[in-house]
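Follow-up to my earlier ticket, as requested here are the two runs.
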Amino acid sequence: MQIQVKFFASLREALGVSADSVHLPGDSGSAADVLAALRARGGAWIEALAEERSFRVAVDQCMATTASAVRHGSEVAFFPPVTGG
């Protein structure tokens, strides 16, 4: 399944992209699976999205957790806990 991913604020700057996509196997998954796929890219992806770093998650434009379900075509966004306007 294909998941659209967006990055905001300092995560966008650290990764050098504001959007990307991730392919997950199967018909169901979670935001944690998206994170794992991104971290598997290595380098800046591991560093910016490290488990010890604090960031928020939204799935289909609703606040979520890494345990939240995703489906084909979902949009998952990651952003720092405080963002400016």
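Run two:
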Amino acid sequence: MSRTLIRGGLVITASDEIHADVLIEDGRIAALASAGSHAFTADRTVDATGKYVIPGGVDAHTHMELPFGGTFASDTFETGTRAAAWGGTTTIVDFAVQSVGHSLREGLDAWHAKAEGNCAIDYGFHMIVSDVNAGTLKEMDLLVQEGVTSFKQFMAYPGVFYSDDGQILRAMQRSAENGGLIMMHAENGIAIDVLVEQALARGESDPRFHGEVRKALLEAEATHRAIRLAQVAGAPLYVVHVSATEAVAELARARDEGLNVFGETCPQYLFLSTDNLAEPDFEGAKYVCSTPLRPKEHQAALWRGLRTNDLQVVSTDHCPFCFAGQKELGRGDFSRIPNGLPGVENRMDLLHQAVLDGHISRRRWIEIACATPARMFGLYPKKGTIAPGADADVVIYDPGAEQVISADTHHMNVDYSAYEGKRVTGRVDTVFSRGVPVITGREYTGRAGHGVYTPRSTCQYLI
């Protein structure tokens, strides 16, 4: 049994900030004691003086190796989880995909095969439900029992992932019975396809038109519709990648009514905008994702939603495609640009910068990036906190270190950074995953296969 002692740091969780020493024993947090009390002995002592000691981040929305638009997300489970560790994230929840005409089990088994033995950090799965039928509904019950407790549906992408209102209602009714949580991509995909066709017919093919056709009102309309369908079904609802002021208003209204409705946003909506989509020489393609980037004025509503808890989680929707050879598939037709941005390595640092910029508090940083995603998806208190009995997923974070985000120095398997040249203060120094150091003083000391599949309980965040 190995014992590691982290001494001298400021321990920050969603609920507390305390100067304390942290004892790790056999992969778990064994105890906390007053800083400098010499209450513990250990095989290894790590000095965290002047640094934060925080829970490892929980990124509840990633897409490693996702097939999309005739290509695949460029990060494998090996490269993507290694990059996550570099950024202070120690757990991801990725999306297994059911293809139309196939079972949920086939999709889940395929994702297990991709991830097993390849991950640097721990991982779980959500299940994308693309084909609602009697067999699928029965399978949902079985998946909940074995720890896949959340199911994503799409109101967008007709002909690929799209579900109509009847299919959505049936899945929600099932989740109301089995305890699962429906995650919704809320955009009116039928209407968007009309606008895409009309834009291309007018010769509007540049990346910026991706944002113009995927209108904020169509995100808000779909969000409203999803909320009301969930209300009819008596089911909780989690809306992913919320990007627009009007969609936040729909969530706030539902929560004011006492409904179990939750919202997630992502760093790209907090730090990037349609200005990026409009960059010349097809550079805007780097920023094509769905929901799309919005004009900067939407950012204030997202930050406010995070402060008021109308938005509860910041995840990345990490889905990287290289500019060369992948994003370029959409030259001359923005609708063919693979949708997705890299970001799993940047989330914790960007949110720390948000603390320094006055948008959120330090504890709220940990809450939206670690504790609440763990609670939302049935991983708490195993993940998301520093407390006796929790997994020793611990990050020693240097709040004063300055860095410039760049593709030249990041570890994601993609040829550009969405935040190229952005200066931020704060950087990961050392990362433990279940007590094992995977980043040690800015060196990678982990290995593929250390990360294990982690079954989840049902949502622990219901009102």
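The only thing I checked on run two: The longest strand covers residues 394-404. Let me know what else you need.
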